[in-house]
Design a protein that fits this description.
By secondary structure, this protein is α+β, with helices and mostly antiparallel strands. Helix content is 68%, strand content 9%. It has a 4-stranded antiparallel β-sheet with strand order 1-2-3-4, with no helix packed on it.
Length: 422
């Protein structure tokens, strides 16, 4: 019986494992974005902060809670009979505080402005985390393509090694040519190990952003650089819609309302009390209404400093707003220059450097087979091609990552986050 139980448990484990692997499917860009919005803890926390901020305006604009009270006025001893004296009574009252007209409305307006700022911060977190996801994905994409090309070059180098060995066998080549080829093959293996590490790091970062243990990404097709035709002036104008800038603008608005609140604090608040006193049947009942006024007599030590504090906070908010604008403009220029230089370099790689290097390798291979050039020349030409291919994909990643980093600065998506195609 125990053996059957263990066998059944093992079978169930295999079924569960198979089902788990069957559910795993390679993820594309849109799948990553959906998972990011749903699972990322930073985005969830920012959304909760925004939702909490939307609850404050109603609280700030509502009257203080009224107060109900009961009074037992005894004569001779507590809780004496009501008819024992005309002074004995039981009182029931209610009181309500009323801030000076306009104070509650200003408090609600200030909380509303602050909530709008928190909403912009939520937008900023979504765009920032999305940009980090795109950067990690483009890193994974280009590294995966670099691994594919490195393996292709490794196969080509192995073929050259075989040619060098055959020439050495028949006495037409040198042993050092074979050794050099073997060394270069080993060097490529080292590069493959380093590239594989970079790919796993990118996958780990993507999994971290999606708050999952691991991810399986869809293999890339032919990678092309994204078309980018937006001018620098247009990007700088777009910084006015940057969530970070707008959040600081909302804070300026809130601090301006705060000054009006501080000015209102110089005005008195009021209180109204109503009370009914129940006496014995032999005596008339009493009614009492009281109006209270809270006089800000210590304004020189309290309200005046609160007003000065509000002005200081407004100046701080304006400086933060100006700093956010200037920082956004600088970041736009920085990333824009990276994009422009990358496009020129990528065009140079595609139209000149890599085609020339490929032709040189093809020509060198044919020439080496017939003994027209030495192996060192062939090896040098191939090494140049490998280096140019790696540099091309590094530059391609730099181009795409610069566009991704630019998006949260201007507050919108600049190029679609989609899959590449063959």
């Amino acid at each position: 019986m125990p053996a059957n139980t263990r066998r059944l448990g093992f079978c169930m484990f295999l079924v569960a494992t198979a089902a788990l692997h069957a559910e795993e499917k390679p993820l594309g860009p849109q799948d990553l974005l959906n998972g990011l919005i749903q699972n990322n803890p930073e985005i969830q926390a920012a959304r909760s902060r925004f939702e909490a901020a939307t609850k404050r305006p109603s609280q700030a604009g509502t009257l203080p809670e009224p107060t109900a009270r009961y009074t037992n006025f005894g004569v001779g001893h507590p809780f004496s009979r009501l008819n024992a004296s005309e002074f004995a009574y039981q009182g029931f009252g209610v009181s309500q505080a009323f801030p000076f007209p306009g104070k509650l409305a200003l408090a609600s307006e200030e909380a509303k402005r602050e909530a709008e700022g928190v909403q912009q911060n939520y937008r900023a977190v979504v765009l920032d985390v999305t940009a980090r996801l795109k950067v990690a994905y483009y890193e994974w994409l280009t590294v995966t393509k670099a691994i594919e090309l490195t393996r292709k070059h490794s196969d080509l180098l192995s073929r050259f090694e075989e040619i060098a060995r055959n020439r050495y066998t028949v006495g037409k080549g040198l042993q050092q040519d074979v050794l050099k080829a073997q060394l270069e093959v080993s060097t490529l293996e080292q590069q493959l190990a380093m590239l594989e590490e970079k790919r796993q790091r990118a996958e780990a970062e993507i999994a971290f952003l999606l708050a999952v243990p691991s991810v399986m990404l869809r293999a890339p097709g032919e990678i092309q650089s994204s078309a980018f035709s937006i001018s620098l002036d247009e990007l700088i104008r777009a910084t006015n819609d940057s969530p970070r800038v707008r959040a600081e603008q909302k804070m300026v608005d809130a601090r301006a309302v705060g000054i009006n609140r501080s000015l209102k604090d110089f005005r008195p608040d009021f209180g109204v009390n109503l009370e009914w006193d129940h006496t014995g049947g032999n005596f008339p009942e009493h009614y009492m209404a009281t109006v209270e006024v809270k006089i800000p007599i210590y304004y020189a030590r309290k309200q005046r400093y609160a007003l000065e504090e509000s002005y200081s906070k407004l100046r701080e908010a304006k400086q933060n707003y100006q700093a956010a604008q200037q920082q956004s403009i600088y970041q736009v220029k920085d990333q824009y220059l990276s994009i422009q230089s990358s496009e020129r370099i990528l065009n140079l790689y595609k139209t000149t450097l890599i085609p020339q290097a490929q032709l040189t390798v093809d020509s060198s291979a044919s020439a080496y087979e017939v003994g027209s050039i030495d192996f060192l020349t062939l090896l040098t030409n191939l090494t140049n091609l490998i280096s140019l291919d790696r540099q091309y994909y590094d530059e391609l990643a730099r181009h795409e990552e610069a566009i991704a980093r630019l998006e949260p600065i201007v507050g919108k998506e600049l190029v679609p986050f989609r899959e590449t195609s063959q």
